[in-house]
Amino acid sequence: PDPAAQLQPNIVHKMGKEIAFVLARENQVLLTTHVDKSHYHCHIIFNSVSSITGLKLSFSPSDLYGLKQFASEISKKYGVYYVDKTPLTID
Asked: Which residues is 46 bridged to in the sheet?
């Protein structure tokens, strides 16, 4: 069985919080956890301008790759070994 299918929404939300904290620790963040597919998942929406420093958050392609690797490590910590071949984008 797929380990991701066994995750409860509170665990998926906790994983999302860990990722969001690293992604934008000085920015306002909205984290939603829901199921509109066959599994629970998170969406992270953040204010790109820090309310603390006033600086705009930006990501290079290597930053995005590193973030994807970090998210994979968080997943492994919870027993989910996830390999995603789709590109990570910031909309």
From this structure: 29
Query: Model pTM?
Result: 0.72
Give a three-class secondary structure readout of the chain: CCHHHHCCHHHHHHHHHHHHHHHCCCCCEEEEEECCCCCCEEEEEECCECCCCCCECCCCHHHHHHHHHHHHHHHHHCCCCCCCCCCCCCC
Tens of pLDDT along 11-22?
A: 889 999 998 888
Name the 3-class secondary structure at 64: helix
Q: At what angle do helices 9-23 and 61-77 cross, to 10 degrees?
A: 150
